[in-house]
Design goal:
- This protein is α+β, with helices and mostly antiparallel strands.
- 35% of the residues are buried.
- It folds into two domains: 255 residues, Beta Polymerase, domain 2; 41 residues, no CATH class.
- Helix 1 packs antiparallel against helix 10 and helix 11 packs across helix 14.
- The strands form two sheets. The chain has a five-stranded mixed beta sheet, with helices on both faces.
- It contains 14 helices and eight strands.
Length: 310
């Protein structure tokens, strides 16, 4: 086990809180024997409470045919992973809620490697993650190794974008800034910095472990970085990220349309997400909820003009 995978292996075992464990058990029962692993991530994990917000889970499955009722759903999950669903559950005299993404183990692992052009997975899973269930020790090793791959991939893809003299903080902020720009994310401009600053020691530790032996990143005793990459590599990276922004927005747009068929309550969730992250307030009607796809497209165009999407 490498130093990075050792760090990740310890991190994923962090003790979770009761509502998250209850939701994970519900998801395992809901999807049955096809479940390979359930992982928990996002703001509720960072806060260590659900605070009546949506918790974020990935349910990793062995095969789509084992969980979907029809072949079309399975096909769409494979063509444009993940499928996203909404779950709610009575818990201690209240309702807890979750946004649940479903993906196969092979696509999850592949999505975190350097061969994956899109940052959709390696951007999310370079951040702290908790494993709440795995079918076997072998599956657990695959998940931990994949989470370590996500960190390495994000850092490797970001490195050529940095100036010659950089810092660990600046490294991660640039990384998250670029990945947010490649999605239709309603995030405030200072979001990458606040994300890094909230757990800077962790991000610095995993970066140091990930870059052991990398001669293109030189550190001094004060933690300052010298980035040694060629100009041709920098130019190629700038072009690659421009294409990621284009590809990412197109794929996110398609996923939003797909979610209209699977994500019950999705329009209300979208409004909540926009207001929570950007401060742009939106009111929706029952008529709009009755046609979530068309209303969602109009909502996106309307709120984009008001600065909700960056």
């Amino acid at each position: 086990m490498t130093p990075l995978t050792q760090i990740i292996a310890t991190e994923v075992d962090r003790e979770s809180f009761p509502s998250a464990l209850a939701m994970a058990n519900h998801l395992k029962q809901h999807h049955g024997d096809a479940v390979e692993a359930i992982i928990f991530y996002g703001s509720c994990l960072r806060q260590r409470k659900d605070n009546d917000l949506l918790m974020d889970f990935y349910v990793i499955v062995s095969a789509y045919q084992e969980i979907h009722k029809n072949n079309l759903s399975a096909l769409m999950n494979w063509l444009l992973p993940p499928n996203v669903y909404y779950h709610e559950l009575p818990f201690e005299n209240r309702i807890i809620r979750a946004k649940v993404a479903v993906i196969s183990l092979s696509q999850f692992v592949g999505g975190n490697t350097p061969k994956s052009f899109s940052p959709l997975f390696w951007a999310r899973f370079s951040q702290p993650t908790a494993i709440l269930y795995t079918r076997s020790s072998n599956t657990r090793r695959h998940i931990i190794s994949s989470l370590a791959d996500a960190v390495r991939t994000l850092l490797d893809k970001t490195k050529p974008l940095l100036k010659r003299h950089a810092s660990w903080r600046g490294y991660w902020i640039r990384a998250f800034t670029e990945t947010y720009r490649s999605e239709l994310r309603p995030e405030a401009p200072d979001r990458p910095a606040s994300l890094v600053d909230a757990d800077f020691a962790r991000y610095k530790t995993v970066a140091e472990a990930a870059l052991i032996g990398d001669s293109s990143v030189i550190t001094d005793s004060d933690g300052n970085l010298t980035i040694c990459v060629s100009e041709s590599t920098r130019r190629a990276s700038l072009i690659a990220w421009a294409f990621r922004r284009l590809q990412g927005k197109i794929l996110n747009f398609l996923r939003l349309i797909k979610a209209g068929f699977t994500f019950s309550g999705g329009l209300d969730y979208l409004v909540w997400k926009i207001e929570r992250h950007s401060g742009v307030k939106v009111t929706i009607t029952d008529a709009q909820r009755a046609n979530p796809i068309r209303s969602g497209l109009r909502l996106y165009l309307k709120t984009r003009k008001r600065g909700a999407f960056h």
